[in-house]
Amino acid sequence: MTEKKKIYSDEELIARFQKGDERAYIELVRRYKDRLLNFVYRYLNSYEQAEDVVQDTLLKLYTSAHMYREIARFSTWIFTIAANLAKSELRRIKRRRVVSIHDMGFDDKEYEIPSEAYSPEKETTSSYGEKQIQQAINTLPDQFKTVIILREVQQLSYEEISQILGISIGTVKSRINRGRLRLQKLLKELKTH
Amino acid sequence: MDCYSFEKIISDYLDSNLTEKEQQAANAHLAECPDCQGRLQDMNNILSALHSLPQPSMNPGFEARLLACIEQQKAKKESPFIYVLHQYSRAISVAAAVFLLLATSLFVYSAFALPSAPGKLPAAEIRMSNAAPEIPAAAGSILAGSREENTVKDTSKTLPLNYQRHIMVVNE
């Protein structure tokens, strides 16, 4: 007789973990590590930093599991943690990238200098390459970047995005529309340069 | 519908979020506007490219590293003294530095600022040193006559050398 293995939902797993079942935690880690990595990697554009953020997210899941209440889906909760940590990491990266040149003796103004060379590949077809798409995502303002990644890369619903970011569905729709148009404009600029 | 209005609803058009009436108006505009047709096609290409972006996967050692981190966190919780040391290391360093500074200042003050020669004694201390023999003498007067002088001498020997010298000078 073969033993049927029950497949638990995320919410059942977190409930089991809250009761002390560490195997449930491992299962949640296995389910979410790649999804979270994909989201954070597209947001930060750095594999190593994305891996660190995902590790911190899953560590927080371990230490703060008791704070989860089943009023929201588990995926929404874990993506909220990841989004907040990724935002903090991006702020930290940006601070490091800001190079003050007043030491050079010109004036007191600080200039923001991109750390990476901006050299888009020119494509002759109407399709877009990964590099171009990622460059355009990196250039998007943060409010559009997050919704575009959650919607187009993670393929989450408007409602889930609204819960993760703590904004209304109307705002999500508006940001997605504006984000897509901004992305289109950026990609057009990248193609013409 | 004009191009500007179509641009505003292009996202809802793609996500099929329009009402039937809006959908018809958008389709009617698209049928006669090659620019918006191109814009829509381009947007479709962008969204397809976004959907088909390669998904990175986690390094095989990730789970082991994560579990090691969790063990470290548990160890921190188990030894609160080390945890407190780690958490308040800066405050502890500052406190230690302040203590060292105070201790050093006190040592320097006691070594150099306190008088070593009788001539340099502050007025109040000179008065004390001058008064010193009188106290035991007064105390000695209560005692029997012949023991008076011995009591004075014995008591003066318990004083610091500076004061002993003063007592000798004053007694002379």
Level of helix content of chain B? over 70%
User: What is the helix/strand order of chain A?
Assistant: HHHHEEHHHH
The CATH architecture of the largest domain in chain A is Orthogonal Bundle
Return the string of H and E elements of chain B: HHHHHHHHHH
Task: Output the CATH homologous superfamily of the largest domain in chain A.
Answer: RNA polymerase sigma factor, region 2, helix turn helix motif
Largest interface (C-beta under 8 Å) = A-B, 38 and 30 residues
Query: What is the terminal-to-terminal distance of chain B?
Result: 121 Å
Q: What integer is the average pLDDT of chain A?
A: 83
Structural class of chain B: mainly alpha
Care to describe what's here?
The complex is a heterodimer of chains A (193) and B (172). A two-stranded antiparallel ribbon of chain A has the order 1-2. Chain A is built from 8 helices and 2 strands; from the N terminus they run ααααββαααα. With 193 residues, chain A is mainly alpha-helical. Chain A has helices at 10-18, 22-44, 47-64, 74-97, 130-139, 142-153, 158-165, 169-192, and strands at 98-100, 110-112. In chain B, helix 2 packs across helix 3 (34-51). With 172 residues, chain B is mainly α. Mean pLDDT of chain B is 76; it is low at 138-152. Chain B folds into 3 domains: 3-51, no CATH class; 72-113; 118-171, no CATH class. Chain B contains 10 helices and no strands. In chain B, 8% of the residues are buried. Chain A binds chain B through residues 26, 29-30, 33-34, 37-38, 41-42, 47, 50-51, 54-55, 58-59, 62-63, 126-130, 133-134, 148, 152-153, 155, 173, 176-177, 180-181, 183-184, 187-188, and chain B through 7-8, 10-12, 17, 39, 41-43, 45-47, 49-51, 53-59, 62-63, 65-66, 69-70, 73.
Which characteristics define this entry?
heterodimer; A: 193 residues; mainly alpha; Rna Polymerase Sigma Factor, Chain: A; Arc Repressor Mutant, subunit A; 2 domains; two-stranded antiparallel ribbon; 66% helix; B: 172 residues; 10 helices; 0% strand; elongated
